[in-house]
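Hey team,

Sharing the histidine kinase run so nobody has to redo it. Sequence (465 residues) first:
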Amino acid sequence: MFLRTLSGRFLLLTSLFVLLAEAMILLPTVANHRRDYLLTRLEKAQIASLALLNTDGMIEPGLERELLANAGVFNVVLRRDDQRRLVLSSPIPAPIEATYDLRAPTDFELVRDALHQLFRPANAVIRVIGDPVRAGGQFIEITLETGPLRAGMLETGFRVLVLSAVFSVLTAILLFLAVRRLLVKPIQRLVARMSAWAEAPEDARRLIAPSARITELREAEEALATMQRQMSSALRQKERLAQLGQAVAKISHDLRNILTTAQLFADRMDESSDPGVRRAAPKLVGSITRAVNLCETTLAFGRAEEPAPTLSRFMIAGLVAEVVEAEMLSARAARVDFVTDIAPNLVLRADPEQMYRVISNLVRNACQAIEATGKPGTIEIGAGEEEAGWWIRVGDSGPGLPARAREHLFQPFQGSVRKGGTGLGLTISAELVRGHGGQLELVRSDAQGTEFLIHLPRELGEAAA
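Structure output:
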């Protein structure tokens, strides 16, 4: 479990990296030990040879063996005045296996020869050539066995490895404590604060206040604080919307009862002898019927259940004419000209009541946009048939939608342009069109006006079916 934590893995990786670095240092260290060992033997051999030269070459065999043993070599050859002379000698136990020149070696050669020496456990005899100290000749040559040399190299390498292991453990522990204090602890506090906020996201006291000194952690805290504020605001808004939905449902329920009573009285107006009343009665009954249906639909929307469309074939021109006639009775359409371009016999398949609501919402929004300019305007309504289905176009000569309204066009309570508007009209219209398997889209919106397009498919989708 410990190695699954950030601290445990950091401790393990630190130890491994320190050991790797020390291993890379080990090879040059062992190579330097070999070079120093051989240079020391060359220096001792030169001192022994100079002692012999000062006696004019006369030395007792016992003293010669002692000088060679002290230098740790078998033979000493000294080249002086262009003459090569065997100064000290003794029997060589085995043939000379290799010759190494230490007068100008490269680092690569030293490391290579050291590795070769380490991986040859057998004791062998080698020849070493070097420069005499204090200009004691042109070069000095010795022969010696490799056993003591290899033993010294192994001992040096072992000491380096032990020290490396100790240093790696100490370094890893110090880094572990530092990382745990500077990184792991702040992350754990951040996680704890996130968990506390998740238990009660509406509690403003649990919002994170960025306080980390590490740049990355502070950026994470700031991003999390921004997300928390947005989510808390969204939760509060959804809660208010839920409460509003309950209130609207209650109002719609009572309003539906009131309108039902008004509908009963409006039905009796057909029996009036006044011709004007008799002409207005069907329109009044139709308006009250739609209001009752709207209340029932609002109740269904409050239950998050938009009723499925009841599909039937009807002439769209008559429905559009009814929408235009109803809108022309309102004061906001006083300076609006309506232009329709629909074939009288164009028949489409949809829910007439829902299509009435969709087109009425689009026309009403267009009238309000033109009214806000204080200038006359035009609303054009067209419809047609294509191979894939039907289309209905509603355009106006208003000022166009602002950028914020276009960004949140079909989102409830956010896409409204008019002051005091809720933005539910387009949201409900888009949902009703989607219920038919179609799509409501904004074609254009600029200084020359706004145009919406409704697509209704010919084939029934799952929602419409």
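Residues 13 and 181 are 18 Å apart (CA to CA).

Ping me if you want the raw files.
A.
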